[in-house]
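Milestone 3.1: sequence recovery, worked example.
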């Protein structure tokens, strides 16, 4: 769901955590991580979304919420990003 970026990278970009959240992992365990907000940009697509401050051992991930904020969706068959039809 959420994008995960190593905490040192986010700090270097000037992004600060605003709160701690508890997250459930795919294997059922829970972890506590800091969460902030980041501006994401890919070519002409721009969006603002929550970002998780990754810790050692965490996978770096561009999450579904960030993709939606950018107005993009993933085509799992072609493994391509496609523009979404935006609904207001």
């Amino acid at each position: 769901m959420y994008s995960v970026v190593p905490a040192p990278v986010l700090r270097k970009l000037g992004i600060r955590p605003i709160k701690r959240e508890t997250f459930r992992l795919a294997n059922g365990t829970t972890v506590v991580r800091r969460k902030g907000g980041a501006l994401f940009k890919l070519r002409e697509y721009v969006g603002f979304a929550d970002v998780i401050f990754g810790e050692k051992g965490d996978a770096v991930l561009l999450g579904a919420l960030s993709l939606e904020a950018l107005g993009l969706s993933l085509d799992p068959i072609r493994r391509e990003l496609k523009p979404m039809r935006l609904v207001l």
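The beta strands are 3-6, 19-24, 30-42, 45-54, 72-75, 80-83. The radius of gyration is 14 Å.
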